Amino acid sequence: xxxxxxxxxxxxxxxxxxxxxxxxxxxxxxxxxxxxxxxxxxxxxxxxxxxxxxxxxxxxxxxxxxxxxxxxxxxxxxxxxxxxxxxxxxxxxxxxxxxxxxxxxxxxxxxxxxxxxxxxxxxxxxxxxxxxxxxxxxxxxxxxxxxxxxxxxxxxxxxxxxxxxxxxxxxxxxxxxxxxxxxxxxxxxxxxxxxxxxxxxxxxxxxxxxxxxxxxxxxxxxxxxxxxxxxxxxxxxxxxxxxxxxxxxxxxx
Length: 253
What we know:
Layout lengths: L4 E5 L3 H14 L9 E6 L1 H10 L7 E5 L15 H7 L1 E5 L2 E7 L4 E6 L2 E6 L5 E7 L2 E9 L1 E5 L7 H4 L11 E7 L9 E5 L3 E6 L7 E5 L2 E4 L1 E8 L5 E5 L5 H8 L3
Parallel strand pairs: 1-2, 2-3, 3-17
Antiparallel strand pairs: 4-17, 5-6, 5-16, 7-10, 7-14, 8-9, 8-13, 10-11, 11-12, 13-16, 14-15
């Protein structure tokens, strides 16, 4: 049975050239009617595609036409239907973020990689951290803090010296960004079921912004984050090159 494939591409020249080649060879189907969605670009475009198609039944298979491509497979025009049939499935849940700003407006977003809270002025941030309603740190002085999923642990979290988490781990990584007090505090591992709250201390003097997979909100006073099990993102990878293998490989390079 012929697979119905929806090809989506970023605006980059390499991705657009790949889109033309692949649709000419394999045809094009609307994402709503596709058996599989093929995303052409880099990791940023893959995140966009996963968010845009999260309510569709088709899994997403990425091919790298961007820069890093951690969430992508190698690009090759030939034998794509066979690769899709043999691909391995990985299912990940995003984080659900609810942020309140100084005007009292509430902003919600899902994050596949991480939610970060970042200083937006010259002075260091002062944050209070609560887990499941209990204050765990009265005051963190830093450039900010982030909460990462296992899928996002090799991205911003890793650059901030946070731990790499196996994809199947039922934990989240809480990582400080340039912590000043407590000196060099780098964070904690939390259960996936935890609800984490960041309260901004003196938000007018020390303004903060929050970011969920590159969607930003400014002048934030509090952020609540929890894993969202009702949303499942389905990714396809070539055998032996799935997220689990890539996470392991990152730790030995």
